Amino acid sequence: MAEIIEFTGKVLTGPGSEQRGLWSVDGRLTFRRPAKAPDRSLAGWVLPGFVDAHCHIGLGVGGAVDAPTAEEQARTDLDAGTTLVRDAGSPADTRWLQDRRDVPVLIRAGRRVARTRRYLRGFAEEVEPEGLVEAVRKQAREGDGWVKLVGDWIDRDAGDLAPSFPAAVVRDAVQAAHDEGARVTAHCFAEETLDDVLDAGIDCVEHATGLLPRHLPRFVEQKVPIVPTLINIATFPDIAAQAAPKFPRYAAHMRSLWGRREERVLEAFEAGVRIYAGTDAGSVIRHGRIADEILALHAAGLPMASALDAACWSAREWLGADGLEEGARADVVVCREDPRKVPEAVHGLAHVVLGGRVIR
For a designed S-S bond to 352, which of 157, 170, 217, 359 qualifies (C-beta 3.0 to 4.6 A apart)? Predict the structure, then answer.
């Protein structure tokens, strides 16, 4: 028999729209009152389940983790309200998690692709420029419509951040992914890298700490969103301190990027660049911190409704997932207070519902 859940509070169907009267019937949402009485009622402000648009399930500090650890990571994200994860590259094959009903919906990107010896050991498929196109084709076929490139990293010979691959090769690689039906996103810290990936026709940019005013019109015109991962960027001073004795130029650059992190995000938002919330969980950043990222976007200057939108309605639409609409899969979070007025309400959620099942 179908389980019926009634949501008795206000239903936030968009950043500025709300209504009352929502039910989950056998795992699907409806705004029409069922003929039968609900099996249970959940009170509070109802939002779509959160999206973590930059997350690494299956990744630990040393690379790939075992299946129990990957499952624990996924469950931790779900308990915090994340019901949809866009994987941003994992060294572990996590396809087995996609068959589970007790972990977030997972959109995989396969392994990220980096330059040989120019990234964290064990995290990526590492290739030289002549192998980039084929590596991207391979990962496009391995994932669920996304490929992740490491666009830049420290060049130890130069002593600073530098693009990982020549611009012309990046263009060919992005075109190869598009030919395979996949979108491409890129890790980009430095200023110059943004020019290269925009020229290449990139579909998304992670971090974008090198964003300059001259980049903004291109992001808007090309409809390229940014996933700032602000709680990860908060680690830049520690990275700089560790690197300073050997690479002082790199350390100074990282501190400079950190210093303008919030200003750059607000400038992008005000220019009309689409912003999405991602934690970069895995390795250094622990899982289950989507609320912290939402609040970090708000602290950077985004109105709280827009910070929520970065992890809710627009984020789900961007990834082709249902929101709060008739017949949608019942992936829902319930806050004790209106999070638009009380931002901290995104912490300590009253309820998390996944596919019509109450998780908490």
Answer: 359
